[in-house]
Design brief:
Blueprint (H helix, E strand, L loop, with lengths): L15 H12 L7 H14 L3 E5 L2 H11 L6 E6 L4 H9 L3 E5 L10 H10 L4 E5 L11 H11 L2 E5 L7 E4 L2 E4 L8 E5 L12 E5 L2 H11 L3 E2 L10 E2 L10 H11 L2 H18 L7 E3 L6 E2 L5 E5 L1 H4 L3 H10 L15 H7 L5 H9 E4 L7 H15 L1
Parallel strand pairs: 2-3, 2-4, 4-5, 5-8
Antiparallel strand pairs: 1-9, 6-7, 6-13, 8-9, 10-11, 12-14, 14-15
Helix pairs in contact: 1-8, 2-8, 3-4, 3-7, 5-6, 9-14, 11-14
The structure holds pyridoxal-5'-phosphate.
The site of pyridoxal-5'-phosphate has 14 residues, from α3 and α4.
Length: 387
């Protein structure tokens, strides 16, 4: 019997035409700050239905720039769900703002209107400037309800959407595509290799606000502007920015990948449906995380919620037994409020939904290059691992 290849929990899909697109960019006149950047930005804006898109070197950089463009700073508060990647919270700290961690629904991992309302109470009288919902796994948060609460508090929504490129949602009679910013000031994407499309490292902000887009472009490149009518060598800096530019090489890959988004999304949906058929055989020990009814999700992460104590095995044992059978798994995420840095800053918070999510969650393989049979293989391996 030949050993079957290891199945990671996520993996990029790079095809010959992607390789060709990068090779063409390498032979072109611009390795960075060239026309492919604007072309990739325009393609993303069109795909998600936003007026503007601004590329950046990674998703974390987009979040940092978003905070700066909004003028968030010391004395301000940002609210993020605790179940997310570190960067969602850290971007507030980069600009000196404080983080109030919202709890999440224990079965979807999402910040809800109820958990946001509770977090707003904990913010006390402080000035809440931004609320950062995360479309965890590709499930769309309840944007209209979150926006209504943010409005009341005088804050804006910034969607942290790296998991949700391609997801849509239906709110009443309105269908929204994640990134169209119908309820938010900006939406942030990442093109890290495990995300839905890959550029190596890379990120993008979308917005419908031309002033914000212009600020983001300035911040992305050292805060430099060229005054109208000035000599060609003249640049001015009103505020220090960064080098957060995304090279043309990466944008060429992004353009090529974006053209495949619909196919990737369809494949993710088909594999998710297969998991939905097969995983119930492991109930009630194993359940799938639940998607809100308004969400038409393209899942980035396939999350099983496992009752490890009822199974009589630890998560570490299950992860190790899956690995022995050639199956990768991961945990998304350790609640950010429990990180030493945030614990030291804000003390031990009791966020029962986040803890209940964390105690049970395990991410199983899901990526477009998987075969249908790979899902059977994962479910069988999980059965063995839990036995
Ligand atoms: C990937 C990710 C980021 C950061 O993106 P990078 O491109 O890795 O910097 C931020 N938030 C969430 C929820 C992510 O999944």
């Amino acid at each position: 019997m030949t050993a079957r290849p290891f199945l990671p929990y996520g993996r990029q899909t790079i095809e010959d035409d992607d390789v060709q697109a990068v090779a063409d960019a390498l032979r072109g006149d611009f390795l960075t700050t060239g026309p492919t950047v604007a072309a990739f930005e325009a393609a993303v804006a069109e795909k998600v239905g936003a007026a503007h898109a601004v590329a950046a070197s990674n998703g974390t950089a987009t979040l940092h720039m978003a905070m700066m463009a909004l003028g968030v700073g010391e004395g301000d508060v940002c609210i993020t769900p605790s179940v997310t990647f570190l960067a969602t919270a850290n971007c507030a700290r980069y600009v000196g703002a404080e983080v109030v961690f919202a709890d999440v629904d224990p079965d979807s991992g999402l910040m809800t209107p109820e958990s946001l309302a509770e977090a707003l109470k904990r913010a006390g009288g402080r000035r809440v400037r931004a609320v950062l919902p995360v479309h965890l796994r590709g499930d769309v948060a309840d944007l209209p309800a979150l926006k209504a609460l943010a409005d009341e508090a005088g804050a804006v929504l910034v969607e942290d959407a790296p998991h949700a490129l391609g997801s849509t949602a239906v709110f009443g009679d309105q269908t929204t595509t994640v990134g169209d910013c119908r309820w938010s000031a900006m939406a942030s994407f990442s093109f890290h290799p495990v995300k839905t499309i890959a550029t190596g490292e890379g990120g993008m902000l979308t917005t419908n606000n031309a002033d914000l887009a212009a600020k983001l472009r300035t911040l992305r490149s050292h805060g430099m502007t060229r005054p109208a009518g000035a000599e060609p060598w003249v640049y001015e800096m009103a505020e220090p920015g960064f080098n957060y530019r995304l090279p043309d090489i990466n944008c060429a890959l992004g353009l090529s990948q974006l053209a495949k988004l619909d196919r990737f999304a369809e494949r993710r949906r088909a594999l998710t449906a297969r998991y939905e058929t097969l995983l119930p055989s492991l109930a009630p020990i194993v359940r799938l995380a639940s998607s809100p009814t308004h969400s038409r999700s393209v899942l980035h992460l396939l999350t099983a919620l496992i009752d490890f104590s009822a199974a009589g095995v630890s998560r570490a044992q299950v992860v190790a037994r899956l690995a022995e059978q050639g199956i990768g798994s991961q945990v998304h995420y350790i609640p950010v409020h429990t990180q030493p840095y945030y614990r030291q800053r804000y003390g031990n918070l009791d966020l029962p939904g986040a803890h209940a999510w964390y105690d049970r969650c395990l991410t199983l393989p899901l990526f477009p290059g998987m075969a249908d049979e790979d899902v059977e293989r994962v479910v069988e391996a999980l059965k063995v691992a839990l036995a």
